[in-house]
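[recover] target loaded
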């Protein structure tokens, strides 16, 4: 009997297969003594948050493939900028990695004049998740579409407020 898989389970399975392929590729193509010790990942988010929950299964799969523990250290201070600053100071040896959202490397440096890191401090090695941003408003709001919201904001400068999870989003 065939069952219909949810989009979420298909996405998770695809992420795990891609991750396994990406981590096995260097091992198969270039045999070497790596890793010989635990791999440390500095994560710029709180434990149990959405990013942490998405990343931990990947880390667990990597542990099984590489035969070494993947140690995740969470530091959600400063919306992830503190963790990236710490990651930028680590030795680039493959044993010290950082995990963050792309906005902290692209948009946020353009919005803040001082950060403990710069884009050139990092080399991206993989994308493991993609999220969608959603705009919502109260059901009884005077507008029903995004176009109407923008028009209302233009007609009433400074009167409409919004909330965003992090700077740059």
């Amino acid at each position: 009997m065939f069952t219909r898989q949810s989009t979420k389970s298909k996405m998770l399975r695809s992420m795990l297969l891609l991750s396994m392929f990406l981590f096995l590729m260097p091992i198969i193509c270039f045999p070497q003594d790596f890793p010989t010790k635990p791999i440390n990942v500095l994560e710029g988010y709180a434990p149990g948050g959405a990013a942490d929950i998405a990343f931990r299964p990947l880390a667990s799969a990597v542990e099984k493939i590489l035969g070494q523990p993947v140690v995740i250290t969470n530091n959600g201070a400063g919306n992830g900028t503190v963790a990236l600053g710490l990651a930028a100071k680590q030795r680039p040896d493959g044993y010290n990695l950082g995990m963050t959202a792309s906005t902290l490397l692209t948009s946020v440096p353009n919005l803040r004049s001082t950060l403990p890191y710069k884009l050139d401090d990092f080399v991206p090695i993989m994308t493991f998740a993609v999220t969608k941003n959603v705009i919502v408003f109260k059901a009884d709001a005077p507008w029903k579409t995004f176009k109407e919201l923008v028009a209302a904001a233009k007609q009433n400068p400074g009167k409409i407020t919004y909330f965003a999870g992090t700077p740059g989003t």
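[recover] notes: The beta strands are 39-43, 70-74, 96-99.
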